């Protein structure tokens, strides 16, 4: 096992990793930007080292500075969390070259699955259903028009090397395609350094279902059930739950088996997530993409599976076998996660950085967990993601989990900044959400218009 681990991240995920490492008896090193000098992760780690100014490109995204911090502190491994360098194949490869263990898959596997064109080809070979789409990368609007004509509208433009909702556009008509292509391609080039796109037939509305997998270096791969992430705003997840009410026993087995086949096809190692779109009418599911890192919503899977995903990541990277087999995995109860962000729902969810003057995070009772890195007096910087906390609940059944989440959101108190807490409470209290009657269109096309009319 490692003696010292560097966390190449910030915020609640950095705190989450520090806690897991400490429980495994591993010393931790926090890195931070000048804007994060007073952040909680710098206080909880055994060591903390400043790696640059506030801008991510000068700090958390600067590979040389992150690696230098690991060398100076003699850290044996780096956990990238999510975002920043977590899916950067070059960084993973550099860690390997410098004899520092990257807690995640190899750069080669990242390139296979991070590039959507490569991933699509791998899945076809592994007999995993894929969404009808372009045969490869599309570089011009003219090419895009030809592909879209073959597939039929609507289509989805997606950045080949993208993720996190960047470089994505839904196109309903031929007239919309050229300007949408140029816009998405420019956004992708700015975000990922690669403006290449690919095109998919739109499966919409649908359920966004993702399956958590774990793989070790001995060829063992398991899945930990599925999460329903269909409640999204602008392709960004808002609320997640596990298991999905849209999936029965037979389909659960099929989609879980497909996820394992997908991971085995690329000899996947560490934690990852296979994302699918489910057409509820036909019951057909399609591979969408793979995230080669731990997910923001991993706690709901931890609650229902009983597996500590972050600890498993560290153990796998240290050369240990998976602590569980597929037969050991039993999904128990129901879990829900709400993301609490410093943003103003009344003004198109504009970021709301500032100082937290008063804070009360819900607590008490079995099956309630809050992952956060904020505290009273903490100033949320304007440079990074606006997430304040994740509230995660677990109940014996879905109704109990829903009621527990409502209770937790009622108790939550954050003063000094505007948050989306009331929005989340309204969402979790909505009749359609309570009934489980929603899909990827629901939040944007049904709930938000009604919510905005009420606010006015």
From TrEMBL:
Source lineage: Bacteria, Bacillati, Bacillota, Bacilli, Lactobacillales
Annotated pathway: Lipid metabolism; malonyl-CoA biosynthesis; malonyl-CoA from acetyl-CoA: step 1/1
Chain ranges of the Biotin carboxylation domain: 1-448
Gene Ontology MF term list: ATP binding; biotin carboxylase activity; metal ion binding
Catalysed reaction, written as an equation: N(6)-biotinyl-L-lysyl-[protein] + hydrogencarbonate + ATP = N(6)-carboxybiotinyl-L-lysyl-[protein] + ADP + phosphate + H(+)
Enzyme Commission (EC) number: 6.3.4.14
Keywords: ATP-binding, Biotin, Fatty acid biosynthesis, Fatty acid metabolism, Ligase, Lipid biosynthesis, Lipid metabolism, Magnesium, Manganese, Metal-binding, Nucleotide-binding
Record's keyword annotation contains Lipid metabolism: yes
Subunit structure of this chain's protein: Acetyl-CoA carboxylase is a heterohexamer of biotin carboxyl carrier protein, biotin carboxylase and the two subunits of carboxyl transferase in a 2:2 complex.
Pfam family, one: Biotin_carb_C
Ranges for domain ATP-grasp: 120-318
PANTHER family per record: BIOTIN CARBOXYLASE, CHLOROPLASTIC, PYRUVATE CARBOXYLASE SUBUNIT A
Name of protein: Biotin carboxylase
Organism annotation: Streptococcus vestibularis F0396
């Amino acid at each position: 096992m490692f003696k010292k681990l560097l966390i190449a991240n910030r915020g609640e995920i950095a705190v989450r990793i520090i806690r897991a490492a400490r429980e495994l008896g591993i010393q931790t090193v926090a890195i931070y930007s000048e804007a994060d000098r007073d952040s909680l992760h710098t206080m909880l780690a055994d060591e903390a080292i400043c790696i640059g100014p506030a801008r991510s490109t000068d700090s958390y995204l600067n590979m040389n500075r992150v690696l230098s911090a690991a060398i100076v502190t003699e850290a044996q491994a780096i956990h990238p969390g999510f975002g920043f360098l977590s899916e950067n194949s070059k960084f993973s490869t550099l860690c390997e070259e410098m004899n520092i263990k990257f807690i995640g898959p190899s750069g080669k596997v990242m390139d296979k699955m991070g590039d959507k064109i490569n991933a699509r080809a791998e899945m076809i070979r592994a007999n995993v259903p894929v969404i009808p789409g372009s045969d490869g990368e599309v570089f011009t609007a003219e090419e895009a028009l030809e592909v879209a004509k073959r597939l039929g509208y609507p289509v989805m433009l997606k950045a080949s090397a993208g993720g996190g909702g960047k470089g994505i556009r839904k196109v309903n008509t031929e007239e919309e395609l050229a300007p949408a292509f140029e816009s998405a391609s420019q956004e992708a080039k700015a975000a990922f350094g690669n403006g290449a796109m690919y095109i998919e037939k739109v499966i919409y509305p649908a359920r966004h279902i993702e399956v958590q997998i774990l793989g070790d270096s001995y060829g063992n791969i398991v899945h930990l059930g599925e999460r329903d992430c269909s409640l999204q705003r602008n392709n960004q997840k808002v609320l997640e739950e596990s298991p999905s009410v849209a999936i029965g026993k037979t389909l659960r087995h099929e989609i879980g088996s497909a996820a394992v086949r997908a991971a085995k096809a690329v000899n996947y190692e560490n934690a990852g997530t296979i994302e699918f779109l489910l057409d509820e009418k036909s019951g057909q599911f399609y591979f969408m993409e793979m995230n080669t890192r731990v997910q923001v919503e991993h706690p709901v899977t931890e609650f229902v599976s009983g597996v500590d995903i972050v600890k498993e990541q560290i153990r796998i990277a240290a050369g240990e076998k998976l602590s569980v087999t597929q037969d050991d995995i039993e999904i128990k109860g129901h879990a829900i996660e709400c993301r609490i962000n410093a943003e103003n729902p009344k003004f198109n969810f504009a970021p709301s950085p500032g100082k937290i003057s008063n804070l009360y995070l819900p607590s008490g009772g079995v099956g309630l967990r809050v992952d956060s890195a904020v505290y009273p007096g903490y100033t949320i910087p304007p440079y990074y993601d606006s997430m304040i906390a994740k509230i995660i609940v677990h109940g014996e059944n879905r109704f109990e989990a829903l009621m527990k989440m409502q209770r937790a959101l009622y108790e939550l108190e954050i003063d000094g900044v505007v948050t989306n807490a009331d929005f989340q409470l309204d969402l979790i209290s909505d009749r359609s959400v309570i009934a489980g009657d929603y899909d990827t269109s629901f939040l944007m096309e049904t709930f938000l218009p009604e919510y905005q009319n009420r606010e006015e």
